[in-house]
UniProtKB/TrEMBL annotation:
This is Telomerase reverse transcriptase. It comes from Obba rivulosa. Keywords: Chromosome, Magnesium, Metal-binding, Nucleotidyltransferase, Nucleus, RNA-directed DNA polymerase, Telomere, Transferase. Telomerase is a ribonucleoprotein enzyme essential for the replication of chromosome termini in most eukaryotes. It elongates telomeres. It is a reverse transcriptase that adds simple sequence repeats to chromosome ends by copying a template sequence within the RNA component of the enzyme. It catalyses: DNA(n) + a 2'-deoxyribonucleoside 5'-triphosphate = DNA(n+1) + diphosphate. Its EC number is 2.7.7.49. GO terms for molecular function: metal ion binding; telomerase activity; telomerase RNA binding; telomeric DNA binding. It comes from the Eukaryota. GO terms for biological process: telomere maintenance via telomerase. Belongs to the reverse transcriptase family. Telomerase subfamily. InterPro entries: Telomerase_RT (IPR003545). GO terms for cellular component: chromosome, telomeric region; telomerase catalytic core complex. It is found in: Nucleus; Chromosome, Telomere.
């Protein structure tokens, strides 16, 4: 079964190994912030998080300036919520999401659970 973003055709152990290589630092600071932009004639607000290496986390203005290069016409709002996460905790959470292989969707107003394994 091919379900978008289900990881059903990706070798899971290889993907987890790649993630271990990508996350090179032992500790990360996670900044939570709001984004406001205009979609048509309406304002859209969403919340996002960005992880930075613990010893290289910028102040919010610097982070917003970097984000604005990719997200034009967007207002960034500092939520003043900063947390810290260890690499191993992040890998454990990603591994759980990847290997659980459970997709929840709605069909005809009723919950539908699809097991992709």
């Amino acid at each position: 079964m091919d379900v978008q973003a289900c990881f059903d055709t990706i070798e899971q152990t290889k993907l987890i190994g790649i993630l271990r290589d990508i996350l090179s630092e032992d500790q990360y600071v996670i900044q939570r912030f709001g984004q406001v932009n205009c979609v048509g004639s309406r304002l859209r607000r969403k919340f996002a998080k960005k992880a930075w290496p613990d010893d290289d986390s910028p102040d919010f203005l610097t982070a917003a300036a970097q984000l604005s290069e990719a997200l034009r016409h967007t207002i960034f709002v500092d939520q003043v919520v900063y947390s810290s996460s260890r690499k191993e905790d992040m890998i454990d959470l990603l591994e759980e999401h990847i290997t659980e292989n459970l997709v929840k969707a709605r069909k005809s107003g009723r919950p539908l659970i699809v097991d992709c394994s």
